[in-house]
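Reply to dn_fold:

You asked what the input looked like. This is it:
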Amino acid sequence: MKRNLYWKGFAFAAILACALLLAACFEQPPVVPDGNEAHIHSFDTWEVTKNPTCTQQGEKVRYCACGEMQSGVIAETGHSFGEWVVTKQPSCTEQGESTRYCACGEVQNNVVAETGHTFGDWETITEASCREKGERVRRCQSCEYYLTEEIELLAHQYEVTADNRPTCEQDGSLTQTCTLCGDVKSERVAASGHTWTGATCTTPKTCTTCGVTEGEALGHSSAVGKCARCGQTVAPTVHLPSLPTECAMISFDEVLSKVRVTSIEYTFEARELTGPGFELEFTIAGEKTYDRKGVDGNTYVSLAWKLLDDEGYVVRSGQLHVFNLAVGDKFKGETFRYTVYDLEPSSSYTLVLEDYK
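and this is what came back:
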């Protein structure tokens, strides 16, 4: 400290002396010896008389040939530090320190920031399930610090194990079981209710799902021939006699022959003749069972038939003739047609076979 004050005082005195000398030079007229021109100083190069340091100024002087001296100040050099050297390593959570030095012995310190944690991958400690959460951890690779975290519950993975499907009128149930933990859940499945199709001429209102019916068919609505509601050609119904049945051909109360009728086939076909109606086509088959002339006879067989309406009135009648039959011969008679007019959609008829007389 005393040394610094000494040098500062010395510098101040030197500067002051130079200033006074210069002032004297300017105030006094130049010396003109023997009538020569005025003298002008010509200084030589600067000479360092005191080297500057990092924190203190230096000094320099120069001279004129006349002996005049000029002094000057040399600025401080400032510190010149070397590289930073870490003197205390930082950790994940604590700062470190670094230091650098100047040639003059000056020391400068600095703070090194914390490194922060460097975590590895997550490690599962406890696996999660559908019923319990799991746990996992990850550790700092530089210190003993670690983080833990819950693993959320797994979602159930259900499969259907029982399926009691509902019907239109009864509830059902659905049972599902988790394939991971065995958890079982059941739920009621509401009855679907009927899905109805409207009644038609021939069918009542019907559920398309279960087939149950409700009410009655509407029935055909028609004058004759075709239903005004559905456009269908409406054929009457024919009730046949019980088979087999036996019929005889009789003349003057004498039985000439007999046949046993074993089948009757019939069809209806709509016709537009003199008016709307249906043509009835039927075929009778059977076997000749008796002939007055014996088995070697060569006679014919005749049958009488009539068609009755649902009130018992005869609407048509006729005969069927089959020729050249011996006893035991089977026959399927020719097809016979006739037309019945003005039939109602729900007409019902009965075919009656009788002895031919």
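Residues 158-189 form one domain.
Hope that clears it up.
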